[in-house]
Amino acid sequence: GESVGLHLPTLSVQEGDNSIINCAYSNSASDYFIWYKQESGKGPQFIIDIRSNMDKRQGQRVTVLLNKTVKHLSLQIAATQPGDSAVYFCAETPWFGNEKLTFGTGTRLTIIP
Amino acid sequence: EAQVTQNPRYLITVTGKKLTVTCSQNMNHEYMSWYRQDPGLGLRQIYYSMNVEVTDKGDVPEGYKVSRKEKRNFPLILESPSPNQTSLYFCASSSGLTNEKLFFGSGTQLSVL
User: Fold this and answer.
1) Fewer CB within 10 Å: N-end or C-end of chain B?
2) Residue B104: which of A47, A52, A10 has the closest Cα?
3) Number of Cβ within a 10 Å radius of residue A53
């Protein structure tokens, strides 16, 4: 079956440095990708999204990069802060507006003071 | 404040004892969904609802029931819980126009003994 997965389950980054979280997906027909952040004891929270007709999208301190050739997605967080410590999930859906999201297993990001 | 409210936050029960986890949203969202989160497996969709009286199975619906009698409420029912339903459950909602901005509840940690 199709799956969305992450390369690394944990990532530790020095405060102030940039972090990169990676995600591989296997469904070449996936059209829409989303990154979620889940802090301890809370539900996932939307961070940023990207459609398959784009390679890059920027938000506030975050950038998502999409490489459709190798089916790879990454989330870059600039100048990490302690509040960035969380589990980050990528999710994909076959088309924009489709109600079925497939989530990856998550990467735990720890910011070292 | 816009939110998705789940109750209870923690629940310990025994095999076979029927239980209901409630979910309510105050954003007039059409789309609501239930997920379970297990270590190493990420978030998996149980059931979803596109509108009142419209529900559909997700990826792991076995052993669960839902109902959508009102727009704001989407309870998850376990008629005869089993230990393999021990998990962290999340309810989510969105406007339904696009599902990227899913709003998640804070989660319900269920233990079935």
Assistant:
1) N
2) A47
3) 10
